Amino acid sequence: MASITIRDVTKSYAKMQVVHGVDLDIATGEFVVILGPSGCGKSTLLRMIAGLEDISGGTIAIDGTVVNKLEPRERGCAMVFQNYALYPHMSVAQNIGYSLKVSGVPAAERTQRIQAVARTLELEHLLDRKPMALSGGQRQRVAMGRAMIREPKVFLFDEPLSNLDAKLRVQMRSEIRKLHRRLAATSVFVTHDQVEAMTLADKLVVMNGGRVEQVGTPAEVYSRPASRFVATFVGAPAMNMLEGTVTLDGLSLLGDSRKLNVSRTGLPVGSKVAVGIRPEAVRLVAPGTPAALEATVDLVEELGAGRVVYVDLDGAPFSVVTSETVHPVPGSAVGLQFAETDLHFFSSETGARLDVFKASVPEPVF
Amino acid sequence: MVERTPFLNFFTHVILFVGFVFCIAPFVVVIIAASHNLKDVNDVPMSLLPGNDFWLNIKTAWTTADLGPKLLNSFIMAAGVAAGKVIISALTAFSIVYFRYPGRTFIFWLIFVTLMLPLEVRIVPTYAVVANVLSPYQTILDITGLTWLIEKVSGVQVSLSLGLLNSYTGLILPLIATATGTFLYRQFFLTVPDELTEAARMDGAGPLRFFIDILLPLSRNNMAALGTIMFLWAWNQYLWPLLITTDQSHATAVTELKQLIPNVGGIPEWNIAMAGTLIVMLPPLIVVVAMQRWFVRGLIATEK
After folding, report:
1. Burial letters B132-146, b for 16+ CB under 10 A, else e
2. A-B C-beta contacts closer than 8 Å
3. Domain-wise residue ranges, chain A
4. Architecture of the domain made up of A239-354
5. pLDDT top residue among A79 and B57
């Protein structure tokens, strides 16, 4: 078991800097998910922890020992790769047991440990097969077994589920979660899939452009996104963003075409803000309802349990998730209603979250 | 694109068949000539119906040219060259693909340049070196005046000498270095996914361990392909064995074929010569047939 301390870590390739000063603390036994779009440096960060990439600046310490100069095998990490990276010429048993063979564990003990791991992952009947004769999910499990057998201090996952089909992904997700609960090993999991991130993480790290945007529990990140990027990246469909200006009595949105009466935000009058509202927080009401924004329905996506309604708000796209049994027809007018506590304010310039309504009592509907 | 048109099918088969006939015809003529007696083989035109003396001719060729030991020599040489090339090129390619060190590019180009320096071009210096492997060092000592110095001080005349003429080592070693093999391996190593290398590193395997446990088993097909090609190439070598084996004991089968070719004014025993050719041709043929499956896979390897 181990904690990981990352201090001001940077990574540059020739002239390009891809990771800009990342600080991160990972506690013993914690399941940390690093979430971000492709090219945000999340995999690079993971590979630096593993020792597969050199660290250009800063330090990474595992259990208090700085590991910058240590070889991967000396760091006590095990990694599950995106493409599984199974040795194609070895059987499942040989694949799982290879690290033990390298470290000179006697054959008898090796067989025993391979059996134990295979039992955990329900791979016993496949031990003699070659990776080529396995399905995607089975290969994934072999890759996990290969990581597990070393009883590592840290598990590293590099988008391990992205090559699986949707159903299998959900299944493996819960298996990884269960496995973590049983082994309680420190785990770092990299993904670009936010559902995966939300469901797996004890602690969620959102990265963008080589920087950490926010660290927090999935619920915190969802309910209080620290920046405009996090707000639009976490949650599906994405949070609606409306550009606006703070006025004396509230907000004017979308180039003054819409007015919104809100309590005093505490922001200086005239400051430019982006106002975010989650599609789940919006209610569809009859057009003409007082204090509701009026819009035209563009498109309705049926999800079975509910539906996503895309509306046109003076040319700005806006989505609403509703589970009510309303069936808006494309082209018809609807009213959009929401609580002002569900509004998120971000600076138009920096994208940083603005704290508003500090003194105000949450007032539900307006 | 796959098209199914009966006419094109027929036409392509005709072309294939013509090509096949062109390839096989000389071979058939050799077999027929090897079965004639002395009179029939010298008829003009030679009868294309096989004669009855095939086994007799084979036997005569075998004893005249003393092919038994010569085939063994050839086999040792060809197998040695093939094995040496496979090992050396795997190691050099491993170094070039998997390690970053100063001068790597330079070494790569150095190997590349040897493509332009086949044995025939460098045969004189190569012969000089093989005749006395230590001669370059002797030269260095001579030029720097060390020989003179040592002689003055100790009274001993330095004369380094290690000859490899008329030895298997001399036959094999100069033919081993190969750029082609290095490139074949390099191309293959470049297709091995990086993740596999990384997985091995995470599993704690060092470079040599990775090479032996992962890379070599994966390049089995390449080894077979390279081994086969190089075996054939070494078997067919003529100039080098001819030059270096002044003694009959180390002559190879291919150079000994010359013994069977009738001299001007001698008895035109072409039937015996053809029979000898057939014998010498046989071992490479067996190797190709035996290795064919691996060989083809090695060259078109897109195994997943």
Report:
1. bbebeeeeebeeeee
2. 58
3. 4-230, 239-354
4. Beta Barrel (2.40)
5. A79
Q: Is the CB of residue B215 less than 8 Å from the CB of residue B136?
A: no
Residue of A nearest to B217 (CA): A89
The angle subtended at Cα B245 by Cα B243 and Cα B247, nearest 5°, is 135
A52 touches chain B (CB under 8 A): yes
What are the chain A neighbours of B202 within 8 Å (beta carbons)?
A: 50, 52, 72-73, 77-79, 99
- Asked whether the beta carbons of residue B202 and residue A82 sit closer than 8 angstroms, the reply is no
Query: Domain residue spans in chain B?
Result: 23-299
Q: State the Cα–Cα distance between residues A62 and A68, nearest whole angstrom.
A: 10
Residue owning tokens 């770092």:
A188
Q: Which distant-in-sequence residues (6+ apart) come within 8 Å of A242 by Cβ? A: A253, A254, A274, A275, A276, A277, A313, A316, A318
Domain B23-299, what architecture?
Orthogonal Bundle (1.10)
Strand, coil or helix: what is B37?
coil
Q: Taking CB atoms and an 8 Å limit, are B203 and A73 in contact across chains? A: yes
pLDDT profile of chain A (366 residues), mean per 10: 87 88 90 90 90 89 88 87 88 90 89 89 87 87 88 88 85 86 88 89 91 91 90 87 79 70 72 87 83 84 86 84 80 85 85 70 44
A-chain CB neighbours of B196 within 8 Å are 85, 87
CA distance A90 to chain B (A): 9
B195 lies within 8 A of chain A by CB = yes
Judging contacts by C-beta atoms under 8 Å, the chain B residues touching residue A72 are 198, 201-202, 204
CB contact under 8 A, A78 and B213: no
Pairing of strands A31-35, A203-208: parallel
**Residue A45's beta-bridge partner residues?**
none
ipTM higher than 0.85? no
CATH 3.30.565.10 at A4-230, yes or no: no
> Counting beta carbons within 10 angstroms of the beta carbon of residue B56, is it exposed (0 to 12), middle (13 to 18) or buried (19 or more)?
middle
B205: contact with A, CB 8 A cutoff: yes
Touching check for A54 and chain B: CB below 8 Å?
no
Distance from the B192 Cα atom to the nearest Cα atom in chain A, whole angstroms:
10
The confidence score (pLDDT) of residue A365 equals: 44
Share of chain B above pLDDT 90, in %: 5
pLDDT tens, residue by residue, B181-217: 888 888 888 888 888 888 998 888 888 899 999 888 8
Kindly state the DSSP code that residue B111 receives in the 8-state scheme: H
Inform me whether the C-beta atom of residue B203 falls under 8 Å from chain A C-beta atoms: yes
Q: How far is CA B132 from the centre of its chain?
A: 23
Q: Which two tokens stand for residue A65?
A: 């020992």
Of B195, B204, B217, the CB nearest to A73: B204
Instruction: Give ∠ CA A90-A96-A99 in degrees, rounded to 5.
Output: 95
Please identify among residues 47-76 of chain B the ones whose CB lies closer than 8 Å to any CB of chain A: none
